[in-house]
Amino acid sequence: MPEITLYGPATIPFTRKVMAALALKGLRHRLVEPEGPEDYKRWSPETGLLPVLDVDGRRIQDSGRILDFLDAEFPEPPLLAAEAKVASSQRRLETWVEETLTFYWMNSLRVEVRGAP
């Protein structure tokens, strides 16, 4: 069994998406949450964004790329349907949800920081 570490805050949707994929595939992992801004840059030097998955020393950034990696390395059970048309629809839905969620999430963060209602 590989050594798998997921770096990211447990409360953000992108980390939770990866955790759900790991659970579906039955892959044991360790979650390491950031304690400060320096952790983001240390774990993800290129972008400073989390989550990042480390599998036996190999690091993968971005939740969508992490899911692709998991399906390639650990194909059972698959995260996408076997039928290409259905899998394509699943990917489009994932992209739409991620983009929409990011927009509203970032907007809510701006509101909280400004203190506006």
> By CATH's scheme, which homologous superfamily of the largest domain applies?
Glutaredoxin
The SSE order reads: EHEHEEHH
Q: What is the distance, rounded to the nearest whole angstrom, between the alpha carbons of the first and last residues? A: 49 Å
Q: Give unreliable regions as ranges.
A: none
Strand proportion: 5-15%
Average pLDDT rating = 88
Continuous helix count:
4
- Helix residue percentage: 40-55%
- The tally of beta strands, per DSSP, is 4
Q: Any idea what the shape is? A: globular
The total tally of domains equals: 2
Throw out a few tags for this protein.
globular; Glutaredoxin; 2 domains; 117 residues; four-stranded mixed β-sheet; alpha+beta
Q: How does this structure look, described?
A:
52% of the residues lie in helices and 13% in strands. With 117 residues, the protein is an alpha+beta fold. The chain folds into two domains: 1-79, Glutaredoxin, CATH 3.40.30.10; 80-117. It has a four-stranded mixed beta sheet with strand order 2-1-3-4, covered by helices on one side. Strand 3 and strand 4 (58-61) form a beta hairpin. Helix 1 packs parallel to helix 3 (63-73). The longest helix has 31 residues, at 84-114. The protein is globular. The model has no long low-confidence stretch (mean pLDDT 88).
